[in-house]
Design brief:
- The protein is an all-alpha fold.
């Protein structure tokens, strides 16, 4: 059963959509319904779920090490960590488009980092858990943060350790005392 903020008719529509998507994808209808339920549990309404599930399915198809549910978890976590769920419209259709556009950006950043480095999307997601708040606070885009996580993976550092190292670096660089020392040493710290 798909749990969502919607009428019985809307939920029935999602069940029908899951059956349609199960045909041309590698995922079964129960897997698609599980991903939809996960999106609903994370606060997505029926309109947003309908708009997002195709992108989630495409991303999961391209990331064969992960299941559809896991891709949903990683994408939604990254969207929350990097503030992509902030400032959404109250209009359901506009909100769904905003979420889908933002999810596309997140999935492309994570997938690109995974393809260009030895990190998979799952490893990038683990690293994000360790350093996303510091990256956001430092004004680092999700694309650059994903690339940094990928570079750490290329050096053989496990994602938890790489994310922790990146967090520590960002915390030190944002420390006012460190910034003053860098400036005294002739290093420009203006963004």
């Amino acid at each position: 059963e798909v749990r969502s903020k919607g009428t019985k008719e809307q939920v029935a529509e999602l069940v029908g959509l899951s059956a349609k998507l199960a045909g041309p994808t590698i995922f079964s209808q129960p897997e698609i319904m599980e991903a939809m339920t996960n999106l609903g549990a994370r606060g997505m309404d029926v309109t947003a779920i309908r708009a997002m599930i195709g992108r989630v399915s495409e991303t999961a198809t391209a990331e064969p090490k992960m299941g559809l549910f896991d891709v949903t978890e990683v994408l939604m976590a990254a969207m929350n960590q990097f503030g992509f769920m902030d400032g959404l419209s109250s209009d359901p259709e506009r909100r769904a488009k905003q979420i889908t556009d933002r999810m596309t950006r997140v999935s492309e950043a994570m997938f690109k980092a995974g393809n260009l480095t030895s990190a998979g999307m799952d490893s990038v997601g683990v690293a994000f858990r360790m350093f996303a708040p510091q990256a956001v606070s430092a004004g680092i885009s999700i694309e650059r943060a994903a690339a940094a996580a990928g570079v750490m993976a290329d050096t053989g550092v496990p994602p938890e350790m790489g994310g922790t190292a990146l967090r520590n670096i960002l915390m030190r660089v944002n420390d006012p005392n460190v910034l003053k020392k860098l400036q005294r040493g002739g290093i420009n710290t203006d963004a």
